[in-house]
Write a structure and sequence with these properties.
With about 250 residues, the chain is α/β, with parallel strands linked by helices. Helix content is about 50%, strand content about 15%. Bound molecules: zinc ion (ZN).
């Protein structure tokens, strides 16, 4: 960690966490309500650093305010409670649209056919440090913390994939130094998901996970953080490697 950042963080830690922020978190973030005092202290530090070190930008007419930024920062810090990452070091900016936004896409399918067009999106993660969200989606997820879907957890998982090479298929700085078993379990489980879908069996996870291995990791992460029971029952190998990778037990969140 850089010396200046270290110094800034220490300075922040010396002043109390703002009471209005505590109220906003208590009113909106179920995981915060459940934390014990030790977890809260750790979480509040992370949220504060996030607010200080990342920039937030409203797009498409979005009016951001401190409360909205705080809630996004809080959700982004939940997957980090086991210290898997020092606040997504390559992430610089969070862009927020009021609702679903339109973006051009270009992708090649399994058959090699390239398709192009414009699609509606509610969030995305760019490998060089930008997260994009629709505020409507973030607000919906805050109101439905146990439905197994969370756009911030999902996009933050992509950031960790870039950082750690969780799937071993994207560019990463560490090339899986963190959790060597993760990529192979993800790969075999991803194949299992495709087979399940082919045979028409229920999966209890968002079928968007079948898109590719990166989306599989992101969807597994968001479902596991909100509904660990589902992943534990249906995907026990995945539950094991996610617990090790994140160093976290979502039952306590
Ligand atoms: Zn994704």
């Amino acid at each position: 960690m850089g010396m200046i950042r270290n110094w800034r963080r220490k300075k922040l830690d010396r002043t109390p966490f703002p009471d209005p922020w505590r109220r906003i978190l208590s009113d909106n973030v179920i995981q915060y309500k459940k934390m014990d005092s030790h977890q809260r202290e750790k979480f509040e530090s992370k949220v504060r650093y996030f607010m200080e070190e990342k920039s937030f930008e409203g797009c498409g007419g979005m009016e951001l305010d401190e409360a909205k930024n705080l809630l996004i920062a809080a959700l982004a810090c939940i997957p980090l409670m086991g210290d898997v990452s020092d606040l997504y070091p390559y992430l610089r900016s969070v862009l927020v649209y009021p609702s679903e936004y339109r973006a051009p896409y270009r992708e090649s399918g399994i058959d090699g056919v390239v398709s192009e067009g414009v699609e509606s999106r509610s969030g995305e993660s760019w490998d060089q440090g930008v997260l994009v969200f629709s505020w409507d989606e973030v607000a919906y997820d805050l109101r439905h913390p146990r439905d197994g879907a969370n756009i911030v957890f999902h996009e933050c998982a992509h950031q960790l994939d870039y950082e750690w090479g969780a799937t071993m298929e994207s560019f990463s700085w560490h090339r899986m130094a963190k959790e060597p078993g993760l990529a192979s379990v993800l790969k075999s489980s991803y194949k299992k998901l495709l087979e399940k879908l082919d045979s028409g069996r229920p999966t209890r996870i968002d079928e968007y996970a079948a898109t590719n291995i990166h989306e599989f990791f992101a969807v597994m992460t968001e479902t596991w953080l909100e509904r660990p029971d589902r992943i534990r029952t249906d995907w026990p190998e995945v539950e094991k490697v996610l617990s090790d990778f994140y160093n976290l037990n979502p039952d306590f969140l």
